């Protein structure tokens, strides 16, 4: 789905190196927690315009049958229907409470775990398969990318977006509360639920390895402006992930509170995490891949 602090649609436990004993939506970011839908929507407000522009540039429009994995609150699915004019969207999430509240014609909702071995069984093929901020929380990413690629019809496109960390590796040099909070967040989420963004720059190569062609990628970094959706998203994410962040020992309560205040200050001069979007097409029937 929908926001770099996580998408509730994945499932799965820790990553391949043993990190993370929980699952997104259980150990942290529980969907039943008050305000969780709003937190996800802040992230969507920061990234949806970029996502929709890319999907439309790739051809999403009338006649397209689409699959949105980890659909969150359904903002991308709704805009594909309303703005791109696609025929239908199957929105899949491990918890569909937010999707069920926003039913519209053309939107089908399925509660499912993309990590399940039979996830692709019986779903047919789609002109567009999209997953945003999902794979970064899951193990076996190469297998999952191959699974998603199999769901793409000939001539269709697979589009994957995940977070890229542009800040926390500088925490030791600049030592600002913001940089320390970002570092603590990524380390805490990795320990708690297996979140890992270190592999994300390799996503284009993984799409090629899955047999897709015309692979390309881009990065978008939303500006950190006081009161902006992305600033509010990070502040809320840090509040909800406070225990995991403090457990890293990289930051204390006072430092985290200072980092949250910094996000809403005129003195804020930092980079948010970015969103890397990579895409590739399945060769049309009869075509020969280069």
TrEMBL record:
EC number: 2.1.-.-
Residue ranges, annotated region (Disordered): 1-27
Compositional bias of kind Gly residues: 1-24
GO molecular function, one term: methyltransferase activity
Pfam families with a match to the protein in the record: Methyltransf_23 (PF13489)
Gene3D superfamilies: Vaccinia Virus protein VP39
GO biological processes: methylation
Keywords of the record: Methyltransferase, Transferase
Presence of the UniProt keyword Magnesium in the record: no
The keyword Transferase is annotated on this UniProt entry: yes
Protein name as annotated: Class I SAM-dependent methyltransferase
Organism: Streptomyces roseicoloratus
